[in-house]
Specification:
heterodimer; A: alpha/beta; four-stranded antiparallel sheet; 10 strands; globular; B: mainly alpha; 9 helices; phospholipid transporter activity (chain B); cell inner membrane (chain B)
Chain lengths: ~250, ~260
């Protein structure tokens, strides 16, 4: 479904992606792990066209992502951002129904609101939240609203960028369970970026480790502990000693 | 030594030209969205209210005090060569041709440009701009075009209101403080104002509104990460808008009134 081949991306002198090859089959939940600053977010932003790689190809269903109708392409995706990225000036329900209030997926306002409230219910938030502004919500609630927005238009592909960062362990567990349930329920293809191993184990069908600008290891989540790769082992056990330098 | 100095000057010139190029492209992209659907009417209406309606108090107060001070200055200066009687005419011409549009433009640069730049820069820092893209919404179309269009259309109205209130400020000082006859003051004001004065004022308003909103959007969209990036974008947008408004004022004055 999603295939990255020899993708390179630099920011000035800093070569972040140095030949990434990755394949995410349809209906699979892929979790990309790796240290901070290794280019995990750049990787998914490259798929969405938010970042333009200098070299390599990225295809979705065999078609290059930079060709064809961009709106139709983006309509296939939902994304939960690291900080939720909710629009401050809009109430919660309009954030969730943003795509349903404008553009090709536009619905009548009442219908869009009803869908937003249903999606909020799906992520465990009551209708009383619908008319509040994002700034009035806790971090965990904002993440849930971001999740509701990501799934509002029932996309085929969902990206989750650090979904549990900044949350307490209980709320992180709630978000992990929600992601797992929603991805299975919708039959969506998912890529999750995280360095939270609890989250990775809860969400993933397969795991890929990004290090040094390349995919270092990829395999089923069940094989993670027996990967035999010293980089993966150091990372998943959180050891300071090993091939990955602790101070980068 | 000389080579280093030349390189430094050359570097500055190249940076300036690059910035000019970016700004030109940004302006072209903004205008190109005017011709391509969809058009976000709700965002346009909100921008009209934010930029127009909510700027009325600051525009009114600025114009009122400026008109009053202008009347006092003209009266005191005119007394040196026995020309105190020209206060109504000079206040009217001064407010409508110059002070009204320029001061309203600068107040809008302070109030609106800074607000737009800070809002968009914060949206960029918090990935809201990226979120817009993933929701199939073009940030230029959703954020920039409504604000630039609203400012361009509403600024002539603000300048018109500012002109009238400024003249009224002069009238208040002239009649209450300087002893002018009220009916004669109004007649002199009306007799000496020409249609071109009013047209030039409104055209300047539209141009200054365009500049003010465009600078806010440009610096917001190009801000760097973090609180410092937002602060720098806000400061730079106001400085650039103010300087460009004053430069545009000179060019438009030359175009309208050079013999």
């Amino acid at each position: 479904m999603i295939r990255l081949t020899d993708v390179h991306k630099s920011f000035g002198e800093n070569a972040v992606l140095r030949g990434v090859d990755l394949h995410v089959p349809r209906d699979e939940s892929m979790v990309v792990i790796g240290g901070s600053g290794t280019g995990k977010s750049v990787l998914i932003k490259s798929v969405l066209g938010l970042v333009t790689p200098e070299r390599g190809t990225i295809t979705v269903d065999g078609r290059p992502v930079d060709q064809g109708d961009r709106d139709a392409f983006l309509a296939r995706f939902g994304m939960l951002f690291q900080g939720a990225a909710l629009f401050d000036s809009l109430p919660v329900w309009q954030n969730v129904a943003f795509r349903l209030l404008r553009g090709a997926l536009r619905r009548p306002r009442d219908e869009a609101r009803a869908i937003a409230i249903e999606k909020l219910r799906r992520v465990g938030l009551g209708p009383d939240v619908a008319d509040r502004l994002p700034a009035e919500l806790s971090g965990g609630m904002q993440k849930r609203v971001g999740l509701a927005r990501a799934i509002a238009a029932e996309p085929e592909i969902i990206f989750f960028d650090e979904p549990t960062t900044g949350l307490d362990p209980i709320m992180a567990g709630v978000i992990n369970d929600l992601i797992r349930e929603i991805v299975s329920e919708m039959g969506a293809t998912a890529i999750t970026i995280t360095h939270d191993m609890t989250s990775a184990r809860a969400i993933a069908d397969r795991v890929a480790m990004l290090h040094g600008g390349k995919i270092r290891w990829t395999g089923p989540v069940a094989d993670l502990d027996a990967s035999g790769d010293p980089y993966v082992e150091q990372f998943i056990h959180g050891r300071a000693d090993g091939p990955i330098k602790a101070v980068r | 030594m000389i080579g280093a100095a030349l390189a430094s000057v050359g570097g500055a010139v190249l940076a300036l030209l690059a910035a000019l190029g970016r700004l030109t492209l940004f302006t072209g992209q903004t205008l190109s969205h005017l011709l391509r659907p969809p058009f976000y009417g709700r965002e346009f209406a909100l921008a009209l209210v934010q930029i127009g309606y909510f700027s009325l108090p600051v525009v009114g107060l600025t114009a009122l005090f400026t008109g009053g001070a202008l009347a006092l200055q003209i009266y005191a200066g005119g007394a040196r060569f026995s020309a105190e009687a020209v206060v109504p005419q000079i206040v009217a011409i001064g407010m409508v041709r110059e002070l009204g549009p320029v001061l309203v433009g600068l107040m809008i640069a302070a109030r609106v440009t800074s607000s737009i730049a800070a809002e968009i820069a914060t949206m960029k820092v918090t990935e809201q701009i990226d979120a817009l893209v993933t929701l199939s919404t073009h940030p230029m179309k959703y954020l920039t075009l409504p604000r630039v269009l609203a400012a361009t259309l509403v600024m002539p109205l603000l300048v018109g209101v500012g002109d009238v209130i400024g003249i009224f400020g002069g009238y208040l000082v002239g009649t209450e403080r300087l002893g002018f006859n009220a009916a004669a003051y109004i007649r002199n004001t009306a007799d000496f104002l020409e249609p071109l004065d009013i047209v030039s004022s409104l055209v300047k308003g539209a141009a200054f509104g365009f500049i003010a909103a465009l600078m806010g959007c440009y610096y917001g969209m190009h801000s760097n990460r973090g609180a410092m990036g937002v602060g720098r974008a806000t400061k730079s947008s106001v400085v650039a808008a103010a300087v460009l408004i004053l430069a545009a004022n000179f060019i438009l004055t030359e175009a309208f009134f050079s013999a």
